[in-house]
């Protein structure tokens, strides 16, 4: 019994050491993206295992002071989280450690459209966002304003609006995440069939509408609805009309309304108002199609649950103290309170869920 208690205490101490040092993981991920390591290893699909020295020769060819040992230390640590695969013969003292990309690592490789998850990594670790993290406890002590606001004096969206480079990185990050998600939606969801007029709330540059119209020619008119200053910069897309406005005031009428990653950064009262405006813009039988992270009812240690709960704390810290990731039941109740009698959730993606509210 004593041995079991000692073993349990040892495991607990080890676990708290791992948790205490876990900042090494995202910051090392940030480092390898900044150094362009994934593209250097990938080399157009070869993904041949190479050493840290060989990586540096590709990413910093004229930097003689670059340190391959320090890069190897970062690669080894991220290997333990499945970002890289390590190739090493421990029986050969002269064997160099070499690294290739795993499926996780491949998400950071720039594809033919210039997209990847790399900008998403960089976007999360900009200085203004990093300044907010030591203040997470303030979201508990004083939820009236976000840790980001306490650290920077402005809301995140207002701050991005004043910093073109941050806004550009945010848009690139969102494209890198949304394009593969939308491809999955267009394969696994048939809810756009029969829709002739579709509004994308918060549609930004209109990328999602372009993809939807490309797959569903029955959608004769797409309305890209966003803030006036956003749609003013949106490109011209055949079949798409750019409309400026405010979703808290009103939303253009349509057979269906689409929105992606909008509701999670607002409070319950604000979400209800947005959904009421959607309800008023739809005919009988019309639907609101919302794509959002949806929390499981039970907490566990699965990668999915952790990713969703971590994202919830990110929203609380950066965007809105009482904005949040919600459960399926919470979304059902919000929809009902806004007037939608019918609701279903479709788990097409591991992180984002398609929520359909029908009038």
Features:
359 residues, alpha/beta, Rossmann fold, two-stranded antiparallel ribbon, 10 strands, 14% strand, globular
Task: Give a structural overview.
It is a single chain. With 359 residues, the chain is α/β, with parallel strands linked by helices. The protein has three domains: 1-107, Arc Repressor Mutant, subunit A (Orthogonal Bundle), CATH 1.10.10.10; 113-180, no CATH class; 181-358, Rossmann fold (3-Layer(aba) Sandwich), CATH 3.40.50. The protein is 47% helix and 14% strand. It has helices at 2-20, 24-34, 37-42, 52-59, 68-79, 103-106, 118-124, 127-130, 138-141, 147-152, 156-162, 164-188, 207-215, 228-231, 268-281, 303-319, 328-337; strands spanning 84-87, 98-101, 197-201, 221-226, 240-244, 256-260, 287-295, 326-327, 342-346, 352-358. The strands form two sheets. Strands 3, 4, 5, 6, 7, 8, 9 and 10 form an eight-stranded mixed β-sheet that branches. A two-stranded antiparallel sheet has the order 1-2. Helix 13 (207-215) links the parallel strand 3 (197-201) and strand 4. The protein starts with a helix and ends with a strand.
